[in-house]
Amino acid sequence: MSSTATSLPPAAAPVSRRPLVASVLAAITGSHLVNDMMQSLILALYPILKGQFNLSFAQIGLITLTYQLTASLFQPLIGLRTDRRPAPYSLPFGMTSTLCGLLLLAYAPNFTMVLVAAMLVGIGSAIFHPESSRIARLASGGRHGLSQSVFQVGGNTGTAIGPLLAAAVIVPNGRTSVAWFAGAALIGIALLTYVSRWYQQHLASTAAAPPAAAIAGTGPAAASNALPAKKVGWIIAILLVLIFSKYFYIAGLSSYYTFYLIQKFHVSVQSAQMHLFAFLLASAAGTLIGGPVGDRIGRKPVIWASILGVAPFALALPYVDLAWTGVLAVIIGFVLSSAFSAILVYAQELMPHRIGTVSGLFFGFAFGMGGLGAAVLGVLADHTSILWVYQLISFLPLLGIVAALLPNRRSH
């Protein structure tokens, strides 16, 4: 077997070595926090929406499916479009769409309008993620894993904060208090305006280079290190199986965690949301690990350990008491969350001339699997029970075994 069948070529060197741009990375990370915090408010509102509109678990899943499927369908298209024609100021426009969805969610008079609000949030995320991931890479100074992890930890931190804010603000004051978070969206718009201005200046400074190289930060080395299209397609398919395993499982764990705790352990809504916050905060912390460790030891070991390594904890979760449920959920969130940055950078290194397309594909597929998982598992919960659903999804991390098929990335 040839060496190219067992290992990847090293990542292409950038056209010009630029230092890490900390201010831009901080701004794009902060805006990711705001964007995902607003998304997670939908998740944290599920018990309130279920009571107000008398929703079934299938309808709860449909809300998740709506905003995540909207994001899933649009993100690859937007990534493909911006690979060909950059649109720096699309980022604040995307945040504005999320803001409109948030305001509509606060005052939606019926379930249909809740779905419209979820769709607006999904559109905002579809615009935000491909371009912001590209900018995190451009600002990385070549430390791609680190920059993606920092960028991702912003999003995961925002996701974790949502339930905490819901418990502290929305549960006591009602659904309309969601509108109070419009101020955070305005901060996000301001941060993204700054980032867009920097991105536009970056594009202008690299205008003399070929368009693909200027945008993606690649040059002739990328072409010389390219793998055959069939092999790239096979590796991408393996990575997507891993994304399916991670996000279908996370959809069940996060979308129905509060209901699981309330039904099995009879805790209050606020107590359940505090448990959800702990799980999501652990996920944010774990995200910071995957990228830098992948930069040092390679992406494959991180991917392997983070998905398959969580299987014993996932399999035990449905059978333990409340205290151990909290502990295992934190471990699962921490370990499993380290996978995405490593998977994304691994894929970007396969196709360095299509950073937007790759980012859009993987973010979109992750959103799609999360939405589909929430919808399918909601239907199953209606026909069986939340407890049975948790037993079923505990086997999903075992799919991490397919990471063994990934080629190793050679060091420089």
TrEMBL record:
Residues forming coiled coils: none
GO molecular function, one term: transmembrane transporter activity
InterPro entries: MFS, MFS_dom, MFS_trans_sf
Keywords: Membrane, Transmembrane, Transmembrane helix
PROSITE patterns to which the protein is assigned, alphabetical: MFS (PS50850)
Keyword Protease belongs to the record: no
Domain of life the protein comes from: Bacteria
Transmembrane segments: 20-49, 55-74, 111-129, 150-171, 177-195, 232-252, 272-290, 302-320, 326-346, 358-381, 387-406
Every Major facilitator superfamily (MFS) profile domain range: 24-412
Cellular component terms per the entry's GO annotation: plasma membrane
Entry annotated with the keyword Transmembrane helix: yes
Protein name listed in UniProt: MFS transporter
Originating organism: Stenotrophomonas tumulicola
